[in-house]
What we know:
Blueprint: E1 5-10, H1 21-27, E2 33-39, H2 43-55, E3 59-63, H3 77-85, E4 90-99, H4 107-124, E5 128-133, H5 136-146, E6 150-153, H6 159-167, E7 171-174, H7 184-192, E8 198-200, H8 222-233, H9 237-251
Parallel strand pairs: 1-2, 2-3, 3-4, 4-5, 5-6, 6-7, 7-8
The chain binds zinc ion.
Residues 9, 11, 39, 95, 203 line the site of zinc ion.
Amino acid sequence: MLTGIFDTHAHYHDGRFDEDRFAVLEGLPEQGVCGVIECGTDVPSSERSRALAEKYPFVWFAAGIHPEDCGDKPLSDLEEVRSLAAHEKCAAIGEIGLDFYWPEPDRETQRVFFERQLQLANDLGLPVIVHDREAHGPTMELMRAYRPAGVLHCFSGSVETMKEAVGLGLYIGLGGAVTFKNARKAVEVAKEVPADRLLLETDCPYMAPVPYRGKRNDSSLIALTAAFLAELRNEDEQALADRCRENALRLFSKIK
Ligand SMILES: [Zn+2]
């Protein structure tokens, strides 16, 4: 069994964990999971994430407003994000970014929320957890402009974009999606990410790796993603999990 697994992206505040949230979280350490970053997607979910971080020593949290959730939010919510970020267990600003897959919220609103939160992270000296769905060009433009520390989570860009991101100092988050049959691009990226920039993540309850695709995901299933990546990269699974944990602790430096 793998040990020392660090899940850099989870949503245990999600309603799909309402039935058994505490049982799932309490079962993680015995399945080799030593750390979780629980990501908010708006103010209430960031507060729920904070509560989980306060309850469990191995959970930290990120506060932020997700691009899909910014449509009906006042900009004053960013002040709430700022105060949440002062918490000793807030490791990052996230989940923030751009999502051009859906027509709503409009792109300009998404960009305003994203830019404000990139600026906030830089002001506070915190890394960012970035969601980029079908918005690689504009996301990279903002990465060049703001130069944040952070991770491009569930990375779906090309090898070329990955290399540029790494050149800017960013980390690349890979999760269950890399194991999907149609994940040709992500597989090419996974082979080439420098070992010191790779992060493991779930995005649970979403993105369960094969053979659990479509089912509810949780941090214990990272072992399957790690095994898949280790085989692709011709590495030892445990060594890969250890290196990814070290990378997470380097990037999310508030975690002790
Ligand atoms: Zn997420």
